Amino acid sequence: MAAKLRRGHFDELARLHAREGRAREGRLLARVFCCVHRYETLFRFKGGHLSACPAAAFAALRSGFEVYREAFSSPLNRSFRSCDYFSLFYDVDRFFGSRGSFYAALPPPGSYQANPPYDANSMTRAVEHICATLDAYEHLGPKGATSFVLVLPRYFKNQRSQRRVDALLARWRRHGETMHDALFDCGFQHRPEPNVSGHDFDARGVRWISKCPIQLLWLQNAAGHRRWPPDADRVAAVVAGFSVAANMD
């Protein structure tokens, strides 16, 4: 059984492995193998696909809002320039810099991108934890400045979850944008062969366009809002980053 991935992704895993001080252990290939097959197994049994915000959107998030942390990611679909990321499988992901589950504890203050799985339970839990984090740091002043740019479907299929999420967001929501035909990277863009097929995906199965409206939400405590205000120009740059034109190879 082989683990296949693009050279660029392998090189990035090797870099992360070395950054974590693991290079001298001589187990890079075994750890890459375990990581790749763990997520391939998830893909087969879950029957869906992970997704990631495209490079142009991340570039705008970094330049406009100092976003270098991802709340929901993996060693295989993280932005190559993220400093910190949280992921599902700490036992295999920790060798490549994962900080573990986003839910394990309150993340430290800072500026985050959050793109949770698009099922009702995951989205509700993500919003609950984000709001708890913002509330915990609200009294710390500038030291507690925290911001999340949250990516969610505009409408939930489960109306009860929709009402719960809307109620939670009311306190911390500073700005929102709705996008149509938003472009995403497939979470399995590390594969050298096409990932998936269908009208939503490009020829390589690397990118897909959402058929449903997507909302971008800026959730911030008071200090986070002062430090990273979602003004019109910076928000527009992030929204444009989800367009097909901005992500042409």
Topology, pairings included?
Layout: H1 7-19, H2 28-46, E1 51-52, H3 55-65, E2 69-73, E3 84-87, H4 90-93, E4 111-114, H5 120-137, E5 147-153, H6 159-172, E6 173-179, E7 183-186, E8 207-209, E9 214-220, H7 222-227, H8 232-240
Parallel strand pairs: 2-3, 2-4, 4-5
Antiparallel strand pairs: 1-7, 5-9, 6-9, 7-8
Helix pairs in contact: 3-8, 5-6
Describe this structure in a few short sentences.
Residues 18-161 form the PCIF1 WW domain. This protein has 249 residues and is of the alpha/beta class.
Largest sheet: 6 strands, mixed
Shape: globular
Radius of gyration: 18 Å
Strand order of the largest sheet: 3-2-4-5-9-6
Strand content: 15-25%
Notes on the protein architecture:
The protein has 249 residues and is of the alpha/beta class. It is 38% helix and 17% strand. It has helices at 7-19, 28-46, 55-65, 90-93, 120-137, 159-172, 222-227, 232-240; strands at residues 51-52, 69-73, 84-87, 111-114, 147-153, 173-179, 183-186, 207-209, 214-220. Strand 4, helix 5 (120-137) and strand 5 form a beta-alpha-beta unit. The protein is globular and about 50 Å long. It starts with 6 loop residues before the first helix and ends in a 9-residue tail after the last helix. It comes from Aureococcus anophagefferens (Harmful bloom alga). This is mRNA (2'-O-methyladenosine-N(6)-)-methyltransferase.
Describe the structure using short key phrases.
249 residues; alpha/beta; PCIF1_WW; mRNA (2'-O-methyladenosine-N(6)-)-methyltransferase; PCIF1-like
